[in-house]
Amino acid sequence: MKAIFSKGILFCFIFLIFYSASAQNKSERDLTLIDKDWRFSFGHLFDTGKDFGHATGYFSYLTKTGFGDGPASSNFDDRAWRKLDLPHDWAVEQSFSEKASFSHGFKTAGKGFPEKSIGWYRKKISIQESDKGKIISLKFDGVFRNSKVFFNGYFLGTEESGYNGFEYDVTAYVNYGGDNTIVVRVDASMEEGWFYEGAGIYRHVYLKKTNPLHVAQNGTYVTSEIKENKTEVSAEVTIENKGNYKGAIEIVQTILDAQGKQIATVSENGTAPNFYKTTNYTSKLTVNDPLLWDIENPNLYRLITEIKQEGKIIDRYETSFGIRTIKFDAEKGFFLNGKSVKLKGTNNHQDHAGIGTALPDELQYFRIKKLKEMGSNAYRCSHHPPTPELLEACDKLGMLVIDETRLMGINDYHLNDLERMIKRDRNHPSIFCWSVGNEEWNIEGNIVGERITNVMQEFTKGIDATRPVTVGISSGFKSGISSVVEIMGYNYMGNGDIDAHRNQFKQQPGMGTEEGSTFATRGVYFTDDAKHYQSAYDKKPRPSFFSIEEGWKFYAERPYLAGMFIWTGFDYRGEPTPYGWPSVTSYFGMMDVCGFPKDNVFYLKSWWGTEPVLHIMPHWNWSTGKEIDVWVHSNCDEVELFLNKESLGKKKMEQNGHLEWKVKYVPGTLEAVGYKNGKKILLDIQKTTENAQNIKLSVDKENISNANVVVITAETTDEKGAHVPTANHEMTFSIKGGKILGVGNGNPTSLESDKFIDNMELVAITNFEEKKLASANIPNQITVEADNNWKEAFKDRDYKNQAPAYVYRGKFDLKNNIKTNTVTFFYKKIGINAVVFVNGNKIPASTDDDQKYILNAAVLKQGLNTIQIIAPPLQKNKDWDVMNTDPGIIQVITPAEQWKRKLFNGYAQIIIQKDENAAEVILSATAKGLKTGTVSVK
């Protein structure tokens, strides 16, 4: 017995030591994604009634602290609002209209649509009692735009720009151990850009908890200096103190490699900064034989920063970084890790088919992989700071990045945005250049532009001296900004004499920040202005501009130019130049809005990539006798073209060029054979297909393995299994084990819905009246009441002398689809033990919510309906109590149509999301006259 007792004591002692050590090594920092289960409803730009009475109280949220009213109040009833997950773009859900914004894709939201320009978001979260003593913050990666955030009715602040990340400290307002309400009012009525921008909380939201003494927001800065076979890493950390601790601290900085192995560590002692102050500490660490980050091998390291107080870890902050060198040379271009690299870049906006700007993280990787596959090695964020996940994808996949701020200027609005972008992004090895502006026509060529650029350039250097600064310039390359910017950014050869500028400023490196701007419609080979279709052959977009081939040849032949960025990698919503309505997307992309390649992709792949390429255009389904321009994109030495086994000639390929034949169409097989050093190495074929017979669904290879969000391609095949490039069937889709997020097809004139979601309408109860009852007994049925003795409900109510009970009545108007709609009354308490009648029928309360009433279609009628509520009144506890006089709201849900989309020139795209616990997702597609297609995703 004694031995057993001793072993028990020993076990407890060991356990306590282990537990104590674990507790000491556990950081108090916690970052939780809170994207799920938000409530959403539209407000109104100027009608306060339709904006739920927000900011109409005697005291507003700007008058007195904690006076958020309407939806900003924590007590607001949002049960009738739509339930959704973030990220969310409400603009993409709307229909199209010729009256809507040309530059934003003609969607009926934002500017000019006051009823769809204000969006309200609400979410309840629980914060534990054990979190007392921590700093609690809300972190938003981006809200478009002009957002106001409230927490438990307290106003936190306004963020005007839709592209900045921001945080709010809510520690003082937390209800520990209970519910806490986050409210965001979004005003998308004003446009920041001249391109589609979306609307809403379209990036992630997090709840952050830290010790009062912690690494500040974006509080690390990692730089490196390579010396022979080792690298000296400088790790600067900003420590913030929001508590009262004033003693000693220890800062431990550790570098881990990609496998998590510790390769360097250093510790230093310091002193905590004063209350609400910050202090910087810099540590030096040595990495032997570093694995450098580059385009082919994007090696990454992690810096772990720990703050210790009395031996206990109180904060742990992780920073991903890479070791590499960058250099611009005015004579020789750009160098990465000492090697010359020609920049083969694209400009891109942030929207995608079907989902607008609310891109799931997986889609960032999908898009970067598509660009890499084309041979691109660089990405320009046009024209605003990107979402953090895009930069993470570029870091991990090996894509160089120009990171760009939104607006030029020298005051706090401009410089604060610039500083936030740089501090957030400066540890990303993919970023090789900061851009402080783009095509600022009013200032590009004058002294104002010169002054602003000098300020922004030096300001940038003060935050990050390791990268150069550029501006994209398009109104001449002679004076103003172009004379002082560190890296000259040429926007289009047709806008000025690049060689002349270079000869005047020989010490200034340069690159083409925008080039091309060509028009092409995927799968179209004859321009049809009536249909708004542009031929996919590479050509000058207008007389003073240049084709993709002309642009690349110009930059490729000039070593002093670091490279060029094509406008654009992907088509995007808005700016449908050279057309207008009903075109709703651009024509500039090398790929369409889905990422389906246009033929120019294969030109670039030939001369930007390293693998052999051979591609024939166009398809081979034409009318007999029609003369067809046949182009071949290839990097082979020679190409021979055959039609039905008959040679049409062998031609030599010019460097950075393409080959052309004029071919009179006859059905059959068009075949190209590519030769390298006299040997056949490649074959490409275009065959005349038969009519479509089958639907084929396939998982795109650019998807991340085991991803939660997956991109699916829909196409048709003929009886022999060949892809039919001219098919335009409408397909309907169904899914098991997941949900569809969006659909698209790349057609710039398509006015089809991007999303099929239930329509939710909130119908007000009007003409609300009351009548006193002599008894508090509640009847089970209601009699028809005469119209006398009714008065406006609650008007001049004497709360000290109320009747035993009241009967209330009001009207609500149902427009249509009564049989298929779901109609629900969300009652707001105006009395005790209320009984509800609709059109004389007693309505039972829902089992899950005793203040919710589902209205069966049998009791409803189209047009005006009567609702009556009988209840004893609520009593005031204090004379100044404000009593609720709102009976509630009628919610009408109209079921969405089945998901559908037409193919466009052979293809459509479906973006799906797996259910949380689903082992398999099955997507099916049907179309008239075609065999059903299915695909399984596990």
Features:
single chain; mainly beta; globular; 9 helices; 11% helix; 8-stranded parallel β-barrel; 938 residues
Structural summary, described in words:
The structure is a single chain. This protein has about 950 residues and is mainly β. The strands form twelve sheets. The chain has an eight-stranded parallel barrel, surrounded by four helices. Helix 5 (about 445-465) links the parallel strand 24 (about 430-440) and strand 25 (about 470-475). The longest helix is centred in the first third of the chain and has 23 residues, at about 1-25.
Q: Which of globular, elongated, flat, extended, rod-shaped describes the shape?
A: globular
Class from helix and strand fractions: mainly beta
The radius of gyration is 32 Å
Contiguous low-pLDDT stretches (5 residues minimum) are 1-24
Number of strands: 53
The largest β sheet comes out as: 8 strands, parallel, barrel
Helix content: 10-25%
Output mean pLDDT.
Answer: 94
Order of strands across the main sheet: 21-22-23-24-25-26-27-28
The span between the termini is 56 Å
Hey, roughly how much beta strand do the residues contain?
35-45%
Helix/strand layout:
Elements: H1 2-24, E1 30-33, E2 38-42, E3 82-84, E4 118-127, E5 135-140, E6 147-151, E7 154-159, E8 166-169, E9 178-187, E10 205-210, E11 213-227, E12 230-241, E13 248-256, E14 262-271, E15 277-288, E16 301-309, E17 312-321, E18 326-329, E19 333-336, E20 339-340, E21 343-348, H2 361-374, E22 378-381, H3 388-397, E23 400-404, H4 412-425, E24 431-438, H5 447-463, E25 469-473, H6 481-484, E26 487-491, H7 498-504, E27 510-516, H8 548-556, E28 561-567, H9 600-608, E29 614-617, E30 627-634, E31 638-643, E32 646-652, E33 659-664, E34 669-676, E35 679-687, E36 694-699, E37 709-717, E38 730-736, E39 738-744, E40 759-764, E41 766-773, E42 791-792, E43 805-814, E44 822-827, E45 835-838, E46 841-843, E47 852-855, E48 863-871, E49 888-894, E50 900-902, E51 908-914, E52 921-926, E53 933-937
Parallel strand pairs: 21-22, 21-28, 22-23, 23-24, 24-25, 25-26, 26-27, 27-28
Antiparallel strand pairs: 1-10, 2-3, 2-4, 4-9, 5-8, 5-10, 6-7, 6-9, 11-12, 12-15, 13-14, 13-16, 16-17, 18-19, 19-20, 29-30, 30-33, 31-32, 31-34, 34-35, 36-37, 37-51, 38-50, 38-52, 39-51, 40-49, 41-42, 41-43, 43-48, 44-47, 44-49, 45-46, 45-48, 52-53
